[in-house]
Write a structure and sequence with these properties.
557 residues, 15% strand, Oligo-1,6-glucosidase, domain 2, 3 domains, 8-stranded parallel sheet, TIM Barrel, binds 1-deoxynojirimycin
Amino acid sequence: MSQQHSAAPASDTVAVRGDWWRDAVIYQVYPRSFADGDGDGMGDLEGVRTRLPYLRDLGVDAVWLSPFYASPQADAGYDVADYRAVDPMFGTLLDADALIRDAHALGLRIIVDLVPNHSSDQHEWFKRALAEGPGSPSRDRYHFRPGKGAAGELPPNDWESIFGGPAWTRVTEPDGTPGDWYLHLFAPEQPDFNWEHPAVGDEFRSILRFWLDMGVDGFRIDVAHGMVKAAGLPDLGSHDHLTLLANDVTPFFDQDGVHEIYRQWRRILDEYPGERIFVAEAWTPTVERTANYVRPDELHQAFNFQYLATAWDAASLREVIDRTLDAMRPVGAPATWVLSNHDVTRHATRFANEPGLGTQIRLAGDRELGLRRARAATLLMLALPGSAYVYQGEELGLPDVVDLPDEVRQDPAYFRGAGQDGFRDGCRVPIPWTRTGPSYGFGPAGTWLPQPPTWADLSVESQTGVPDSTLELYRTALAVRRSEPDLGAGDAVEWLPAPEGVLAFRRGDFICAANTGDTPVTVPSYGRLLLSSAEPPSTPGAETTLPPNTTTWWTTA
Ligand code: NOJ
Protein backbone atom coordinates (compact mmCIF):
# COMPACT_ATOMS: atom_id res chain seq x y z
CA MET A 1 0.00 0.00 0.00
CA SER A 2 2.77 2.46 0.85
CA GLN A 3 5.38 3.86 -1.41
CA GLN A 4 8.67 2.29 -0.43
CA HIS A 5 11.01 4.51 1.45
CA SER A 6 14.61 3.90 2.21
CA ALA A 7 15.32 7.24 3.84
CA ALA A 8 16.89 7.17 7.28
CA PRO A 9 15.00 9.37 9.71
CA ALA A 10 15.99 13.02 9.57
CA SER A 11 17.70 14.08 12.76
CA ASP A 12 16.27 16.77 15.00
CA THR A 13 19.04 19.32 14.78
CA VAL A 14 16.89 22.29 15.72
CA ALA A 15 18.33 23.77 18.88
CA VAL A 16 16.06 22.81 21.76
CA ARG A 17 14.43 25.89 23.23
CA GLY A 18 11.97 25.55 26.11
CA ASP A 19 8.40 25.28 24.84
CA TRP A 20 9.31 26.78 21.46
CA TRP A 21 5.74 26.45 20.27
CA ARG A 22 4.18 28.67 22.92
CA ASP A 23 5.14 31.86 21.08
CA ALA A 24 6.13 30.42 17.69
CA VAL A 25 5.29 32.08 14.40
CA ILE A 26 4.28 29.24 12.09
CA TYR A 27 4.18 29.75 8.32
CA GLN A 28 1.66 27.76 6.31
CA VAL A 29 2.95 26.43 3.02
CA TYR A 30 0.30 25.29 0.59
CA PRO A 31 2.60 23.03 -1.44
CA ARG A 32 0.66 23.26 -4.73
CA SER A 33 1.09 27.01 -4.81
CA PHE A 34 4.40 27.81 -3.13
CA ALA A 35 7.15 26.91 -5.61
CA ASP A 36 7.38 24.49 -8.52
CA GLY A 37 10.68 22.59 -8.62
CA ASP A 38 10.01 20.34 -11.62
CA GLY A 39 8.17 22.65 -14.01
CA ASP A 40 4.80 20.90 -14.19
CA GLY A 41 2.90 24.01 -13.07
CA MET A 42 2.20 22.50 -9.65
CA GLY A 43 4.25 23.34 -6.56
CA ASP A 44 6.19 20.51 -4.94
CA LEU A 45 8.46 19.53 -2.05
CA GLU A 46 11.63 20.33 -3.96
CA GLY A 47 10.23 23.80 -4.59
CA VAL A 48 9.64 24.22 -0.87
CA ARG A 49 13.09 22.92 0.00
CA THR A 50 14.87 25.38 -2.24
CA ARG A 51 12.90 28.28 -0.74
CA LEU A 52 13.58 27.41 2.90
CA PRO A 53 16.25 30.11 3.20
CA TYR A 54 13.55 32.67 2.31
CA LEU A 55 11.47 31.42 5.24
CA ARG A 56 14.44 31.47 7.58
CA ASP A 57 15.20 35.05 6.52
CA LEU A 58 11.56 36.01 6.94
CA GLY A 59 12.02 35.03 10.58
CA VAL A 60 9.41 32.33 11.17
CA ASP A 61 9.99 29.45 13.58
CA ALA A 62 8.22 26.61 11.83
CA VAL A 63 6.57 25.62 8.58
CA TRP A 64 3.25 23.80 8.37
CA LEU A 65 2.77 21.98 5.07
CA SER A 66 -0.73 21.26 3.82
CA PRO A 67 -1.07 17.63 2.59
CA PHE A 68 1.41 16.27 0.04
CA TYR A 69 0.40 12.60 0.39
CA ALA A 70 -0.70 10.23 -2.37
CA SER A 71 -4.11 11.52 -3.38
CA PRO A 72 -6.41 11.80 -6.38
CA GLN A 73 -6.71 15.50 -5.41
CA ALA A 74 -10.49 15.63 -5.25
CA ASP A 75 -10.02 18.15 -2.42
CA ALA A 76 -6.48 19.38 -3.13
CA GLY A 77 -4.87 16.55 -1.16
CA TYR A 78 -7.28 16.50 1.80
CA ASP A 79 -8.44 13.22 0.26
CA VAL A 80 -5.59 10.87 1.15
CA ALA A 81 -5.18 7.52 -0.60
CA ASP A 82 -1.96 6.54 1.16
CA TYR A 83 -0.90 8.27 4.36
CA ARG A 84 2.66 6.99 4.15
CA ALA A 85 3.42 8.00 0.56
CA VAL A 86 4.18 11.30 -1.14
CA ASP A 87 2.08 11.98 -4.22
CA PRO A 88 4.30 11.90 -7.33
CA MET A 89 3.06 15.39 -8.18
CA PHE A 90 4.81 16.62 -5.02
CA GLY A 91 7.86 14.32 -5.13
CA THR A 92 8.97 11.30 -3.14
CA LEU A 93 9.60 10.31 0.44
CA LEU A 94 13.24 11.07 -0.18
CA ASP A 95 12.23 14.64 -1.05
CA ALA A 96 10.26 14.82 2.20
CA ASP A 97 13.29 13.57 4.08
CA ALA A 98 15.56 16.13 2.40
CA LEU A 99 13.09 18.90 3.18
CA ILE A 100 12.92 17.96 6.86
CA ARG A 101 16.70 17.73 7.13
CA ASP A 102 17.34 21.04 5.38
CA ALA A 103 14.70 22.79 7.45
CA HIS A 104 16.27 21.53 10.65
CA ALA A 105 19.71 22.61 9.50
CA LEU A 106 18.29 26.13 9.03
CA GLY A 107 16.65 26.11 12.47
CA LEU A 108 13.12 25.68 11.10
CA ARG A 109 10.64 23.07 12.37
CA ILE A 110 8.34 21.11 10.11
CA ILE A 111 4.69 20.42 10.89
CA VAL A 112 2.75 18.13 8.57
CA ASP A 113 -0.97 17.81 8.01
CA LEU A 114 -2.78 14.73 9.27
CA VAL A 115 -6.22 13.95 7.84
CA PRO A 116 -7.90 11.45 10.17
CA ASN A 117 -11.60 12.24 9.72
CA HIS A 118 -11.82 10.79 6.23
CA SER A 119 -9.73 9.11 3.55
CA SER A 120 -9.91 9.25 -0.21
CA ASP A 121 -12.38 6.96 -1.92
CA GLN A 122 -9.25 5.56 -3.59
CA HIS A 123 -7.79 4.43 -0.25
CA GLU A 124 -7.24 0.64 -0.20
CA TRP A 125 -9.65 0.23 2.71
CA PHE A 126 -12.47 2.00 0.94
CA LYS A 127 -11.92 0.22 -2.35
CA ARG A 128 -12.02 -3.06 -0.44
CA ALA A 129 -15.17 -2.02 1.42
CA LEU A 130 -16.89 -1.36 -1.91
CA ALA A 131 -15.65 -4.58 -3.51
CA GLU A 132 -16.57 -6.84 -0.59
CA GLY A 133 -20.18 -5.70 -0.55
CA PRO A 134 -22.88 -5.11 2.06
CA GLY A 135 -22.39 -6.68 5.47
CA SER A 136 -18.67 -7.26 4.94
CA PRO A 137 -16.43 -6.41 7.93
CA SER A 138 -14.37 -4.08 5.72
CA ARG A 139 -17.39 -1.75 5.51
CA ASP A 140 -17.25 -1.24 9.30
CA ARG A 141 -14.18 0.97 8.97
CA TYR A 142 -16.40 3.58 7.34
CA HIS A 143 -20.04 4.56 7.94
CA PHE A 144 -22.08 2.42 5.57
CA ARG A 145 -25.83 2.25 6.14
CA PRO A 146 -28.88 1.07 4.23
CA GLY A 147 -31.02 3.92 2.94
CA LYS A 148 -34.45 4.93 4.13
CA GLY A 149 -37.62 4.63 2.04
CA ALA A 150 -39.27 1.57 0.55
CA ALA A 151 -36.31 0.76 -1.67
CA GLY A 152 -33.57 2.40 0.41
CA GLU A 153 -33.61 5.32 -2.00
CA LEU A 154 -33.32 8.01 0.69
CA PRO A 155 -30.16 8.89 2.63
CA PRO A 156 -29.89 7.34 6.12
CA ASN A 157 -30.19 10.73 7.84
CA ASP A 158 -30.54 14.42 7.07
CA TRP A 159 -26.91 15.49 7.42
CA GLU A 160 -25.52 17.74 4.71
CA SER A 161 -22.00 17.86 3.35
CA ILE A 162 -19.95 20.92 4.27
CA PHE A 163 -19.42 21.31 0.52
CA GLY A 164 -23.16 21.17 -0.20
CA GLY A 165 -25.65 18.42 -0.96
CA PRO A 166 -26.35 15.35 1.16
CA ALA A 167 -23.54 13.97 3.33
CA TRP A 168 -24.35 10.51 1.95
CA THR A 169 -23.72 8.83 -1.38
CA ARG A 170 -25.34 5.60 -2.48
CA VAL A 171 -23.03 2.94 -3.90
CA THR A 172 -23.56 0.51 -6.71
CA GLU A 173 -22.93 -2.91 -5.23
CA PRO A 174 -20.63 -5.47 -6.90
CA ASP A 175 -23.72 -7.16 -8.42
CA GLY A 176 -24.70 -3.89 -10.12
CA THR A 177 -27.65 -3.01 -7.89
CA PRO A 178 -28.05 0.23 -5.92
CA GLY A 179 -27.07 -0.56 -2.36
CA ASP A 180 -25.76 0.99 0.88
CA TRP A 181 -25.03 4.64 1.45
CA TYR A 182 -21.78 5.91 2.95
CA LEU A 183 -21.17 9.05 4.99
CA HIS A 184 -18.93 11.87 3.76
CA LEU A 185 -19.05 15.14 5.66
CA PHE A 186 -17.05 16.68 2.82
CA ALA A 187 -16.90 15.56 -0.85
CA PRO A 188 -18.18 12.11 -1.93
CA GLU A 189 -14.54 11.27 -2.66
CA GLN A 190 -13.83 11.73 1.09
CA PRO A 191 -15.60 8.92 3.01
CA ASP A 192 -15.59 9.42 6.79
CA PHE A 193 -13.76 6.82 8.85
CA ASN A 194 -15.66 5.04 11.60
CA TRP A 195 -13.54 5.81 14.64
CA GLU A 196 -15.50 3.25 16.71
CA HIS A 197 -13.61 0.58 14.77
CA PRO A 198 -10.36 -0.32 16.55
CA ALA A 199 -8.43 -0.75 13.28
CA VAL A 200 -8.88 2.95 12.53
CA GLY A 201 -7.25 4.05 15.77
CA ASP A 202 -4.46 1.48 15.34
CA GLU A 203 -3.78 2.69 11.82
CA PHE A 204 -3.54 6.34 12.80
CA ARG A 205 -1.28 5.63 15.76
CA SER A 206 0.99 3.84 13.30
CA ILE A 207 0.81 6.75 10.81
CA LEU A 208 1.76 9.16 13.59
CA ARG A 209 4.83 7.07 14.38
CA PHE A 210 5.76 6.84 10.72
CA TRP A 211 6.02 10.62 10.37
CA LEU A 212 7.53 11.11 13.82
CA ASP A 213 10.21 8.62 12.81
CA MET A 214 10.73 10.68 9.65
CA GLY A 215 11.62 13.56 11.99
CA VAL A 216 8.63 15.89 11.75
CA ASP A 217 8.11 18.33 14.62
CA GLY A 218 4.36 18.12 14.73
CA PHE A 219 1.00 17.64 13.12
CA ARG A 220 -1.83 19.94 12.14
CA ILE A 221 -4.93 17.80 12.62
CA ASP A 222 -7.53 18.28 9.90
CA VAL A 223 -11.17 18.36 11.05
CA ALA A 224 -9.95 17.59 14.57
CA HIS A 225 -13.48 18.09 15.86
CA GLY A 226 -15.08 15.59 13.50
CA MET A 227 -13.89 12.05 14.05
CA VAL A 228 -16.46 10.95 16.62
CA LYS A 229 -20.12 10.94 15.62
CA ALA A 230 -23.07 10.79 18.03
CA ALA A 231 -24.31 7.23 18.59
CA GLY A 232 -27.00 6.24 16.11
CA LEU A 233 -26.15 9.14 13.75
CA PRO A 234 -29.29 11.08 14.75
CA ASP A 235 -31.01 13.51 12.40
CA LEU A 236 -30.19 17.18 12.82
CA GLY A 237 -33.76 18.18 12.27
CA SER A 238 -32.66 21.50 10.84
CA HIS A 239 -31.62 22.40 7.36
CA ASP A 240 -29.86 25.64 8.09
CA HIS A 241 -26.58 23.81 8.53
CA LEU A 242 -24.24 26.75 8.19
CA THR A 243 -25.95 28.64 11.03
CA LEU A 244 -26.10 25.50 13.09
CA LEU A 245 -22.41 24.78 12.56
CA ALA A 246 -21.45 28.26 13.70
CA ASN A 247 -23.45 28.12 16.91
CA ASP A 248 -23.89 24.57 18.19
CA VAL A 249 -22.31 21.24 18.93
CA THR A 250 -23.70 18.92 16.26
CA PRO A 251 -23.95 15.09 16.18
CA PHE A 252 -20.92 15.08 13.86
CA PHE A 253 -18.74 17.93 15.16
CA ASP A 254 -17.17 18.62 18.55
CA GLN A 255 -18.46 15.47 20.21
CA ASP A 256 -16.79 14.91 23.59
CA GLY A 257 -15.49 11.49 22.49
CA VAL A 258 -12.77 13.03 20.31
CA HIS A 259 -10.80 13.98 23.39
CA GLU A 260 -9.96 10.38 24.30
CA ILE A 261 -8.29 10.00 20.88
CA TYR A 262 -6.09 13.02 21.61
CA ARG A 263 -5.12 11.77 25.05
CA GLN A 264 -3.82 8.60 23.39
CA TRP A 265 -2.01 10.54 20.67
CA ARG A 266 -0.39 12.84 23.19
CA ARG A 267 1.15 9.87 24.96
CA ILE A 268 2.71 8.75 21.67
CA LEU A 269 4.07 12.20 20.87
CA ASP A 270 5.59 12.54 24.31
CA GLU A 271 7.60 9.35 23.78
CA TYR A 272 9.61 11.13 21.10
CA PRO A 273 12.62 13.36 21.76
CA GLY A 274 12.43 17.09 21.10
CA GLU A 275 9.28 19.10 21.62
CA ARG A 276 6.82 17.97 19.00
CA ILE A 277 3.36 19.39 18.83
CA PHE A 278 -0.20 18.95 17.67
CA VAL A 279 -2.34 21.82 16.43
CA ALA A 280 -6.07 21.25 16.02
CA GLU A 281 -8.18 22.48 13.18
CA ALA A 282 -11.30 22.44 15.33
CA TRP A 283 -14.16 24.68 14.26
CA THR A 284 -16.10 24.81 17.51
CA PRO A 285 -18.89 27.22 18.38
CA THR A 286 -16.88 29.05 21.05
CA VAL A 287 -13.30 29.61 22.21
CA GLU A 288 -14.30 27.94 25.47
CA ARG A 289 -15.06 24.70 23.56
CA THR A 290 -11.82 25.12 21.63
CA ALA A 291 -9.94 25.21 24.93
CA ASN A 292 -11.05 21.62 25.60
CA TYR A 293 -8.73 20.46 22.81
CA VAL A 294 -5.65 21.94 24.46
CA ARG A 295 -6.00 20.62 27.98
CA PRO A 296 -2.59 19.58 29.36
CA ASP A 297 -2.89 15.91 28.32
CA GLU A 298 -4.30 16.61 24.85
CA LEU A 299 -3.14 18.85 22.01
CA HIS A 300 -0.76 21.81 22.20
CA GLN A 301 -2.54 24.42 20.13
CA ALA A 302 -5.83 24.95 18.36
CA PHE A 303 -6.50 27.47 15.62
CA ASN A 304 -8.42 30.48 16.83
CA PHE A 305 -11.03 30.78 14.11
CA GLN A 306 -13.12 33.15 16.20
CA TYR A 307 -10.23 35.62 15.90
CA LEU A 308 -9.91 35.02 12.17
CA ALA A 309 -13.61 35.77 11.74
CA THR A 310 -13.51 39.05 13.68
CA ALA A 311 -13.95 42.32 11.81
CA TRP A 312 -11.33 45.09 11.84
CA ASP A 313 -13.00 46.87 14.71
CA ALA A 314 -11.43 47.76 18.06
CA ALA A 315 -14.34 46.73 20.29
CA SER A 316 -14.86 43.36 18.59
CA LEU A 317 -11.15 42.65 18.57
CA ARG A 318 -10.75 43.49 22.22
CA GLU A 319 -13.62 41.20 23.09
CA VAL A 320 -12.27 38.21 21.16
CA ILE A 321 -8.74 38.77 22.51
CA ASP A 322 -9.98 38.85 26.10
CA ARG A 323 -12.24 35.90 25.58
CA THR A 324 -9.47 33.86 23.99
CA LEU A 325 -6.94 34.61 26.70
CA ASP A 326 -9.52 33.93 29.42
CA ALA A 327 -10.42 30.59 27.82
CA MET A 328 -6.84 29.42 27.37
CA ARG A 329 -5.47 30.50 30.75
CA PRO A 330 -7.21 27.80 32.84
CA VAL A 331 -5.87 25.00 30.62
CA GLY A 332 -2.39 26.52 30.42
CA ALA A 333 -2.29 26.49 26.61
CA PRO A 334 -1.02 29.37 24.51
CA ALA A 335 -3.54 31.35 22.54
CA THR A 336 -3.11 31.19 18.77
CA TRP A 337 -3.84 33.97 16.31
CA VAL A 338 -4.51 33.59 12.62
CA LEU A 339 -5.84 35.90 9.92
CA SER A 340 -5.63 33.85 6.72
CA ASN A 341 -5.35 30.27 5.50
CA HIS A 342 -6.15 28.19 2.41
CA ASP A 343 -9.86 27.94 3.29
CA VAL A 344 -10.84 31.58 3.70
CA THR A 345 -10.65 34.80 1.70
CA ARG A 346 -7.29 36.45 2.39
CA HIS A 347 -7.50 39.15 5.04
CA ALA A 348 -6.30 41.86 2.62
CA THR A 349 -9.53 41.22 0.68
CA ARG A 350 -11.80 40.66 3.68
CA PHE A 351 -10.79 44.02 5.12
CA ALA A 352 -11.25 45.68 1.71
CA ASN A 353 -14.96 45.00 2.02
CA GLU A 354 -17.78 45.92 4.38
CA PRO A 355 -17.60 44.10 7.72
CA GLY A 356 -20.18 41.39 8.27
CA LEU A 357 -19.73 39.62 4.93
CA GLY A 358 -18.01 36.69 6.64
CA THR A 359 -14.80 34.92 5.67
CA GLN A 360 -15.86 33.83 2.20
CA ILE A 361 -15.93 36.89 -0.05
CA ARG A 362 -15.48 37.15 -3.78
CA LEU A 363 -15.50 40.93 -4.09
CA ALA A 364 -12.29 42.87 -4.64
CA GLY A 365 -13.48 45.81 -2.55
CA ASP A 366 -11.17 48.77 -1.92
CA ARG A 367 -7.76 47.12 -2.36
CA GLU A 368 -5.69 49.97 -0.97
CA LEU A 369 -7.80 50.15 2.16
CA GLY A 370 -7.79 46.36 2.48
CA LEU A 371 -4.01 46.19 2.35
CA ARG A 372 -3.62 49.05 4.81
CA ARG A 373 -5.92 47.32 7.29
CA ALA A 374 -4.32 43.92 6.64
CA ARG A 375 -0.89 45.30 7.53
CA ALA A 376 -2.32 46.87 10.67
CA ALA A 377 -4.12 43.63 11.58
CA THR A 378 -0.90 41.69 11.18
CA LEU A 379 1.06 43.97 13.52
CA LEU A 380 -1.73 43.64 16.07
CA MET A 381 -1.71 39.85 15.77
CA LEU A 382 2.06 39.65 16.15
CA ALA A 383 1.93 41.71 19.35
CA LEU A 384 -0.42 39.32 21.14
CA PRO A 385 0.74 36.67 23.61
CA GLY A 386 0.86 33.19 22.13
CA SER A 387 1.58 31.68 18.76
CA ALA A 388 0.72 33.21 15.37
CA TYR A 389 0.09 31.65 11.97
CA VAL A 390 1.04 33.28 8.69
CA TYR A 391 -0.38 31.96 5.41
CA GLN A 392 1.95 32.00 2.41
CA GLY A 393 1.63 35.18 0.38
CA GLU A 394 0.13 37.30 3.13
CA GLU A 395 3.63 38.66 3.75
CA LEU A 396 3.41 39.99 0.19
CA GLY A 397 0.03 41.59 0.87
CA LEU A 398 -1.62 39.35 -1.72
CA PRO A 399 -5.34 39.85 -2.23
CA ASP A 400 -7.69 37.02 -3.14
CA VAL A 401 -8.06 36.49 -6.86
CA VAL A 402 -11.77 37.13 -7.15
CA ASP A 403 -12.18 36.80 -10.92
CA LEU A 404 -10.86 33.32 -11.69
CA PRO A 405 -12.62 31.95 -14.76
CA ASP A 406 -15.04 29.14 -14.00
CA GLU A 407 -13.15 26.64 -16.12
CA VAL A 408 -10.03 26.77 -13.93
CA ARG A 409 -11.81 26.35 -10.60
CA GLN A 410 -10.94 23.25 -8.58
CA ASP A 411 -12.55 23.74 -5.18
CA PRO A 412 -15.02 20.87 -4.73
CA ALA A 413 -17.40 23.30 -3.02
CA TYR A 414 -17.71 25.10 -6.35
CA PHE A 415 -19.04 21.96 -7.99
CA ARG A 416 -21.33 21.01 -5.14
CA GLY A 417 -22.80 24.47 -4.67
CA ALA A 418 -22.76 24.82 -0.89
CA GLY A 419 -23.58 28.45 -1.34
CA GLN A 420 -19.83 28.98 -1.02
CA ASP A 421 -19.30 29.43 -4.73
CA GLY A 422 -15.95 27.67 -4.70
CA PHE A 423 -14.42 30.69 -3.05
CA ARG A 424 -11.32 28.86 -1.82
CA ASP A 425 -9.46 28.86 -5.15
CA GLY A 426 -9.02 32.62 -4.82
CA CYS A 427 -6.56 32.33 -1.93
CA ARG A 428 -4.70 29.39 -3.50
CA VAL A 429 -3.22 31.07 -6.57
CA PRO A 430 0.56 30.39 -6.82
CA ILE A 431 2.63 33.12 -5.25
CA PRO A 432 4.89 35.49 -7.23
CA TRP A 433 8.62 35.36 -6.54
CA THR A 434 10.08 37.46 -9.35
CA ARG A 435 9.02 40.47 -11.42
CA THR A 436 9.15 38.56 -14.68
CA GLY A 437 8.99 35.04 -16.03
CA PRO A 438 6.11 32.80 -17.09
CA SER A 439 4.85 32.40 -13.54
CA TYR A 440 6.64 35.21 -11.71
CA GLY A 441 9.31 32.76 -10.64
CA PHE A 442 6.90 30.21 -9.19
CA GLY A 443 8.48 27.70 -11.54
CA PRO A 444 9.91 27.31 -15.01
CA ALA A 445 6.49 26.83 -16.62
CA GLY A 446 2.94 28.02 -15.98
CA THR A 447 0.75 27.68 -12.93
CA TRP A 448 -2.20 25.41 -12.08
CA LEU A 449 -4.32 28.50 -11.36
CA PRO A 450 -3.67 31.67 -13.39
CA GLN A 451 -1.93 34.58 -11.64
CA PRO A 452 -3.26 38.10 -12.24
CA PRO A 453 -1.17 40.19 -14.64
CA THR A 454 -0.71 42.78 -11.87
CA TRP A 455 1.32 40.55 -9.55
CA ALA A 456 4.83 41.59 -10.70
CA ASP A 457 4.82 44.44 -8.19
CA LEU A 458 3.73 42.11 -5.41
CA SER A 459 6.56 39.64 -6.01
CA VAL A 460 9.24 38.86 -3.45
CA GLU A 461 11.79 40.39 -5.81
CA SER A 462 9.87 43.66 -6.13
CA GLN A 463 9.40 44.04 -2.40
CA THR A 464 12.79 42.93 -1.10
CA GLY A 465 14.75 45.85 0.28
CA VAL A 466 11.89 48.31 -0.24
CA PRO A 467 11.43 49.80 3.24
CA ASP A 468 7.67 50.34 3.15
CA SER A 469 6.82 47.09 1.38
CA THR A 470 4.62 44.54 3.11
CA LEU A 471 7.38 41.94 2.92
CA GLU A 472 9.81 44.22 4.76
CA LEU A 473 7.11 45.04 7.31
CA TYR A 474 6.74 41.33 8.09
CA ARG A 475 10.50 40.84 8.23
CA THR A 476 10.97 43.76 10.60
CA ALA A 477 8.00 42.79 12.74
CA LEU A 478 9.25 39.23 13.11
CA ALA A 479 12.75 40.47 13.94
CA VAL A 480 11.38 42.84 16.61
CA ARG A 481 9.19 40.03 17.95
CA ARG A 482 12.27 37.88 18.39
CA SER A 483 14.25 40.62 20.12
CA GLU A 484 11.50 41.85 22.47
CA PRO A 485 11.20 39.25 25.21
CA ASP A 486 7.70 40.35 26.24
CA LEU A 487 6.21 39.84 22.80
CA GLY A 488 4.58 36.47 22.35
CA ALA A 489 5.21 35.45 25.97
CA GLY A 490 2.68 35.23 28.77
CA ASP A 491 -1.07 34.79 28.78
CA ALA A 492 -2.43 38.30 29.32
CA VAL A 493 -2.35 41.85 28.03
CA GLU A 494 -2.68 44.99 30.11
CA TRP A 495 -5.19 47.23 28.35
CA LEU A 496 -4.47 50.94 28.38
CA PRO A 497 -7.24 53.54 28.29
CA ALA A 498 -7.91 54.40 24.66
CA PRO A 499 -10.44 56.46 22.69
CA GLU A 500 -13.15 54.74 20.68
CA GLY A 501 -11.79 52.80 17.74
CA VAL A 502 -8.34 52.40 19.31
CA LEU A 503 -6.85 49.36 21.01
CA ALA A 504 -3.84 49.94 23.21
CA PHE A 505 -2.12 47.44 25.46
CA ARG A 506 1.11 47.02 27.32
CA ARG A 507 3.31 43.96 27.61
CA GLY A 508 6.18 44.86 29.95
CA ASP A 509 8.14 47.65 28.24
CA PHE A 510 6.29 47.07 24.99
CA ILE A 511 3.13 48.92 23.92
CA CYS A 512 0.94 48.19 20.94
CA ALA A 513 -1.62 50.77 19.79
CA ALA A 514 -3.97 50.16 16.87
CA ASN A 515 -6.32 52.69 15.37
CA THR A 516 -9.01 50.66 13.59
CA GLY A 517 -10.97 53.72 12.52
CA ASP A 518 -10.90 55.67 9.28
CA THR A 519 -9.79 58.98 10.84
CA PRO A 520 -6.67 60.01 12.80
CA VAL A 521 -6.95 59.80 16.60
CA THR A 522 -4.93 61.64 19.21
CA VAL A 523 -3.61 59.56 22.12
CA PRO A 524 -1.02 60.09 24.85
CA SER A 525 2.55 59.53 23.70
CA TYR A 526 3.63 55.91 24.28
CA GLY A 527 7.41 56.23 24.27
CA ARG A 528 9.81 55.41 21.44
CA LEU A 529 8.30 54.18 18.18
CA LEU A 530 9.51 50.73 17.13
CA LEU A 531 7.34 50.11 14.10
CA SER A 532 4.27 51.37 12.30
CA SER A 533 2.15 49.51 9.77
CA ALA A 534 1.71 52.75 7.76
CA GLU A 535 3.14 56.27 7.80
CA PRO A 536 4.70 57.02 11.21
CA PRO A 537 2.41 58.75 13.69
CA SER A 538 3.17 62.38 14.40
CA THR A 539 4.28 63.03 17.96
CA PRO A 540 4.21 66.70 18.85
CA GLY A 541 5.21 66.70 22.54
CA ALA A 542 3.14 64.66 24.96
CA GLU A 543 0.59 63.57 22.39
CA THR A 544 0.64 61.31 19.39
CA THR A 545 -1.69 61.29 16.42
CA LEU A 546 -2.30 57.75 15.21
CA PRO A 547 -3.06 57.59 11.49
CA PRO A 548 -6.24 55.74 10.47
CA ASN A 549 -6.16 51.96 10.06
CA THR A 550 -2.69 51.76 11.53
CA THR A 551 -1.01 49.68 14.22
CA THR A 552 2.05 51.02 16.02
CA TRP A 553 4.59 49.36 18.27
CA TRP A 554 6.36 51.34 21.00
CA THR A 555 8.87 50.79 23.77
CA THR A 556 9.14 52.57 27.06
CA ALA A 557 12.59 51.10 27.80
C1 NOJ B 1 -10.13 21.43 6.35
C2 NOJ B 1 -9.13 21.75 5.31
O1 NOJ B 1 -8.40 22.88 5.71
C3 NOJ B 1 -9.89 21.96 4.04
O2 NOJ B 1 -9.08 22.50 3.02
C4 NOJ B 1 -10.50 20.66 3.64
O3 NOJ B 1 -11.32 20.85 2.50
C5 NOJ B 1 -11.37 20.08 4.76
N1 NOJ B 1 -10.74 20.19 6.05
C6 NOJ B 1 -11.65 18.63 4.52
O4 NOJ B 1 -10.49 17.86 4.70
